[in-house]
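Entry
Fold in token form

___
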Amino acid sequence: MNEDYKPRFSFEITEEQKFRADKLLDTYGLRKAIFGRILDDVLDIIEEYGGMAIGVMMKGKPREIIPSIKGVEEVGKK
């Protein structure tokens, strides 16, 4: 593998999501830091609970499930 190779994780987003992300996450490196952490949490949950976790995340509210997001809400409510 090339030493310069850096894996990417990409998916389509809506125009509204792009506008919001551009407005709210404009500091260099912030998107990578935030979404890298969220991805780790999601993968940990799937690794531990399997396909059931995917179903719950697709059906429910990720804010209630993903630890890094839930922690923010707990702090914000104080």
